[in-house]
Design brief:
CATH topology: Rossmann fold
CATH architecture: 3-Layer(aba) Sandwich
Strand content: 5-15%
Radius of gyration: 17 Å
Number of domains: 1
Shape: globular
CATH superfamily: P-loop containing nucleotide triphosphate hydrolases
Bound molecules: ligand Z5A
Strand order of the largest sheet: 2-3-1-4-5
């Protein structure tokens, strides 16, 4: 059974919150070896890259191509130095974002960049399969409200409602008719999100004959 669980969704969808819920649920299911990561990040180098990706530099704009390269560099560090090693020794990995984020955020803006993404994916993601993707579907206006309430916004979060809407639509088309995807209505309150998630996650584990 493929033990890599990925949580996806636009900013403010509740991914970090849900990561904790999944971890606790897996524990209650008798699973002891669980490791949580986030993307970009999860290793010392990848965390340094995360800072640049999220906040850039005061007087220098990160180019699109640099953004792509840094995201995949961080992913490469995390996969090789953490995820693959942990999976090998029987861990479940819960990842706050993964490659599908790049397809939603970075793909579709230029043919050349898309080709580069295809190449990087092929090289960096070989031999790795996501077991389950949990997509938290939230309306941009709800997500923006949550982000604003949280306080200081980073570069990507400062982008407009239109941007959030576009990314949400890309996510929905990426997951449409895909196997091993759970879609959660993340507009609901945390308790309802939790109940819906646990119900579907339990069914997925049973269906995949987890013992
Ligand atoms: N990025 C990219 O462009 N390409 C890539 O390939 C990858 C990433 C991997 C990562 O930043 C950024 O990198 C991201 C895309 C880009 N864009 N940005 N910005 P991040 O990790 O800081 O941001 P994020 O991944 O979008 O997470 P987030 O903004 O922290 O949101 P979240 O984790 O989905 O939500 P949360 O922290 O769990 O919840 C947000 C708030 O809402 C919080 O106060 C909660 O208590 C509250 N909340 C959560 N759920 C609920 C419900 N159901 N009801 C009410 N309130 C709720």
């Amino acid at each position: 059974m493929n033990k890599l669980i990925v949580i996806e969704g636009i900013e403010g969808a509740g991914k970090s919150t849900v990561k904790r819920i999944i971890k606790n649920f897996l524990k209650s299911f008798g699973i002891k070896k669980i490791f949580c990561v986030r993307e970009p990040g999860g290793t010392p180098i990848a965390e340094k890259l995360r800072k640049i990706i999220k906040n850039g530099e005061k007087d220098e704009k990160l180019t699109y191509i640099s953004e792509i390269l840094l995201i995949y560099a961080a992913r490469s560090q995390l996969l090789k130095n953490v995820i693959k090693k942990k999976l090998k020794i029987g861990y479940w990995i819960i990842s706050d974002r993964f490659n599908i984020s790049s397809l939603a955020y970075q793909k579709g803006y230029s043919k050349t960049n898309d080709r580069i993404i295809d190449l990087l994916q092929k090289k960096i993601l070989s031999n790795i399969k996501v077991g389950l993707t949990i997509y938290l579907d939230v309306l941009p206006k709800t997500a923006l409200k949550r982000i604003k309430m949280r306080g200081k916004m980073d570069l990507i979060e400062k982008k407009s409602f239109v941007f959030f809407n576009k990314i949400r639509k890309k996510y929905l088309s990426l997951i449409k008719n895909k196997k091993n995807v759970i879609i959660i209505n993340a507009n609901l309150n945390i308790k309802k999100v939790m109940l819906s998630l646990i119900y579907q996650l339990k069914n997925w584990l049973i269906k995949n004959e987890y013992k």
